[in-house]
Amino acid sequence: ISSPFFPPNSSWDAAYERELQTFQDIGDTGEIWFGEESMVRIIRWLEKHKVPLDSSVLDIGTGNGVLLVELAKSGYTNLTGIDYSPSAIQLSEKVREKEGMSNIKLKVEDFLAPSAELSGFDICIDKGTFDAVSLDPSDAVGKRKLYVASLCRVLKPEGFFLITSCNWTREELLNEFREGFEILEELPTPKFCFGGRIGNSVTALVFQRK
User: Which of 2, 60, 158, 162 is the most exposed place for a label (fewest CB within 10 A)?
Assistant: First the structure.
């Protein structure tokens, strides 16, 4: 997980420092948040809907950048990853170099205050960054609103937003993104059974900007 919502000396940055060192030592890219199937789910949806390979894609809170590498391997050519943690961007740069994916753009950015050039994307992807907003002890509600406002700024009208969350249900996410977005699809995620009740520990939704 990576997050633009904690100060640089936070535990996220420290975690990416460790992953960066590990990558330099043994070439291990570190943890894939939500596992491999979450990346496959995203790529399958893009392919199923014949999203053009030159569509501009923004990975919000890119972490180690592995999702962007997989998108590049699937033929996507216009890829950008942002993260608030400089260590995360350093790590993703090294992963990009190792994989020979020079066309992936990487930037240190605070998504709650995006720079002017961060705009006009066809697709935005979030795996856990919106969750991190919810964990922020200082004004989480205000920061979630800022997140939605930023998303409206960077995503084109009729652009797609793919979100994977372990904190929020479908109904809660529909409520959070009701201003400016409509749901297109809920993607299948692994089910779990507890006390005789079946549920999902992960929610994955596709929204379209109005």
Answer: 158
pLDDT tens track for 50-80: 999 999 999 999 988 999 999 999 999 999 9
- Give the Cα separation of 139 and 146 in Å (integer): 11
Q: Where are the alpha helices (DSSP H) in 113-203?
A: 129-135, 140-154, 170-176
Give the CA distances from residue 208 to residues 56, 125, 194, in Å, rounded to whole numbers and listed in that order: 15, 12, 33
For residue 180, the SS3 value is coil
What's the rounded Cα separation, in Å, for the pair 202 and 19? 24
Query: Based on the structure, what is the number of domains in the chain?
Result: 1
11 contacts 137 by C-beta, under 8 angstroms: no
- Give residue 77's domain range: 43-209
- In angstroms, the CA 29 to CA 2 distance is 14
CATH number of the CATH domain containing 178: 3.40.50.150
Contact 155, 88 (CB under 8 A): no
Q: Note the pTM of the prediction, 2 decimals.
A: 0.83
